[in-house]
Amino acid sequence: MTLSADIERGSGIPLYLQIRGRILALVEERGLQPGDALPSESELLAAFGVSRATIRHTLARLESEGVVERHQGKGTFVALPRLRRALPELTSFSEHIAAQGLRSVSRLVRFDRLRAGRSVERVSPDEPELEVFGETSEVVRFVRVRVANDVPIGVHTTATPGDVADAIGLTREQLSDPGFSFYRALAIGGQPVAWAEEHLAARGAARPEAQLLGVSPGTPVMSVLRLTHNAAGRLIETVRAVYLGDKYDYVIQLERRAQPAATV
């Protein structure tokens, strides 16, 4: 079936639902992947011979269903599915994206070597993380935009003790490689991660984050602070992961414990 397949005007099925079905079939027929462009509004108008309002209603319906994404001035694209992360799963971003059949790359935004503080009191979902490494003299911090199938979905601000960075030979050049995996480098360098705790908070995107993600300031995001330790219990990474709120689904399995018998 092609995009120009006739729609049945007297069938009793609303036109927008018929067009929706044709677009879904087109995605499947052509094997379109998240991030791939769909026909423009003008092309859809020419193919189906309906009003622009009908086309826009159809695309709005598909967007609300998470099937397409519309970007002003750019067009309509196949949307990324919501990325399901099951807790307590501890994986890197690249491992997580690969497990869902998507391509991942990173874009380095910033690389710094900073002097660490000594306080451990300021760890929270909304506070800087550089002061949590105790007596460590230096901290390496880097900021990366995380991309899945060419679509920016998150910004990671990662910090690690200077001696850990030195042990694994961490450099700006390494981090500039779009396929670089920090967790893989830690494992190869004898500093594998063992466990972590995460703090989650929902908020609006700050202007710098919004610019990196290509969205408007205030767009809902999930802010995740991860504190990662090695097998000896040493804190070897903090990462502030800011994800677009409509792209991530955190799943937590809960188990009810036996409750004490009620007393009168």
- Rg, rounded, reads 23 Å
Name the CATH architecture of the largest domain: 3-Layer(aba) Sandwich
User: How much β-strand is present in the residues?
Assistant: 25-35%
Percent helix, as a range, is 25-40%
Instruction: Characterize the main sheet.
Output: 6 strands, antiparallel
The secondary-structure element order is: HHHEEEHEEEHHHEHEEE
Mean of residue pLDDT?
Answer: 81
- Poorly predicted ranges: 118-128
- What is the strand arrangement across the widest sheet? 4-5-6-9-8-7
Query: CATH homologous superfamily of the largest domain, by name?
Result: Chorismate lyase-like
What structural class do you assign from the helix and strand content?
alpha+beta
Per DSSP, the total helix count is: 8
Question: Any idea of the CATH topology of the largest domain?
Answer: Chorismate lyase
The count of strands amounts to 10
Judging from the principal axes of the Cα atoms, what is the shape? Answer: elongated
Q: How far apart are the first and last residues' alpha carbons, in Å?
A: 70 Å
Domain module count = 2
